[in-house]
UniProtKB/TrEMBL annotation:
CDD domains: TPP_E1_PDC_ADC_BCADC
Function (record text): The branched-chain alpha-keto dehydrogenase complex catalyzes the overall conversion of alpha-keto acids to acyl-CoA and CO(2). It contains multiple copies of three enzymatic components: branched-chain alpha-keto acid decarboxylase (E1), lipoamide acyltransferase (E2) and lipoamide dehydrogenase (E3).
Cofactors named for this entry: thiamine diphosphate
Native organism taxonomy: Bacteria, Bacillati, Actinomycetota, Actinomycetes, Pseudonocardiales
EC nos: 1.2.4.4
Protein known as: 2-oxoisovalerate dehydrogenase subunit alpha
Length: 348
């Protein structure tokens, strides 16, 4: 497993391979914002402002690095747990949370942001990601696609189809598997008998790389190279990021039914934020002034999220029938008219 910085913040790999200090500092700022976003979203669930929230606490290094290594022309294909990655890509977090509020399926413009809608079903976004990458390759566009998924998705047919197609046609896609050890309650050992998820790359003829998913420095190196490889036309890379889901699957989950608190406690010291903070503080890159500046930015973001999700959504029943067909069918028009008439009767 590729690693550059250990849990104490000490360099354990090739020091010459470390990203530049300013890159690591930007990464740390992104981690602070991502952690605060996870905390704020969790609070909004408890207040009834969000219907559900799948926290990525403990996985934030994967989230922010996946966004950081992409160019403006690239695409990000996220899952339901990748709120922090989408926000790090530059999408307003209020818009990202729209789906989890139970409002529109997607609160942002995928074309304008080059971020696909969040996918809740496992692996369904992976063939779509490959399709976008292959289309860009055929059109001669300078586009790389970052496709995110979890370890549970690697058991799905969509994962196989996406990897196989991308490998055969050298589609410019980076598959980042955030191996957080559980597909809801199913442990990794019940998902695969392979030595690692990265080892699955050999079966498709693509490089498989295993990286410490809580080491932002190592992730930056691995994902930067994978993106560069795809951009050169050398095809996809399968990256397995070894990480851990600290919090429940969602607020509706009881993790005590399938894992012990001792296991969780063993992972807490490996926290990506604490690890990078220790390294940057020891090297003198992170000062108290910068720490305060980043904390203030995180609180400003959290206040913005509270204000944006605190307001009641403006509901329009006609939206039930919008975007079902480009040209509404007679049946759809009839249903819309019936609902409108019924609501008029209620109002009167």
């Amino acid at each position: 497993m590729f690693r550059l910085i250990d849990e104490t913040g000490a360099v354990v790999g090739d020091a010459a391979a470390l990203p530049a200090p300013d890159v690591l500092l930007d990464g740390y700022r992104a981690l602070v914002l991502a952690r605060r976003l996870n905390e704020q979203a969790g609070a909004l669930v408890r207040q009834g402002r969000l219907a559900v929230y799948p926290s990525s606490r403990g996985q934030e290094a994967c989230q922010v690095t996946a966004a950081a290594v992409l160019a403006e022309t690239d695409w990000l294909f996220p899952t339901y747990r990748d709120v922090a990655a989408i926000a790090a890509r530059g999408v307003d977090p209020v818009d990202v949370l729209v789906m989890l509020r139970g409002d529109w399926h997607c609160g942002y413009d995928p074309i304008a942001t080059r971020v696909a809608p969040q996918a809740t079903p496992l692996a369904t976004q992976l063939p779509h990601a490959v399709g976008v990458g292959q289309a860009a390759r055929l059109k001669g566009e300078d586009t790389v696609v970052m496709a995110l998924c979890g370890d549970g998705a690697t058991s799905e047919g969509g994962f196989h189809e996406a990897l196989n197609f991308a490998a055969v046609f050298a589609a410019p896609v980076v598959f980042l598997v955030q191996n957080n050890k559980y597909a809801i309650s199913v442990p990794l050992a019940r998902q695969t008998a392979a030595e690692s998820l990265a080892a699955k790359g050999a079966g498709y003829g693509v490089p498989g790389v295993q990286v410490d998913g809580n080491d932002l420095a190592a992730l930056t190196v691995v994902l930067t190279e994978a993106v560069a490889r795809a951009r050169r036309g050398d095809g996809p890379t399968l990256v397995e990021a070894d990480t851990y889901r600290i919090e429940p699957h969602t607020n509706a989950d009881d993790p005590s039914r399938y894992r012990s608190e001792d296991e969780v406690e063993r992972w807490r010291p490996r926290d990506p934020l604490l690890r990078l903070r220790a390294h940057l503080t020891a090297t003198g890159v992170l000062t108290p002034e910068l720490e305060a500046e980043f904390a203030a930015a995180a609180e400003e973001m959290a206040a913005h999220v509270r204000a944006g999700t605190g307001a009641d959504a403006a509901l329009d029943s006609a939206e039930l029938f919008a975007h079902v067909y480009a040209t509404p069918t007679p049946q759809l028009r009839e249903q819309a008219a019936l609902l409108a008439a019924e609501l008029d009767g209620v109002r009167s």
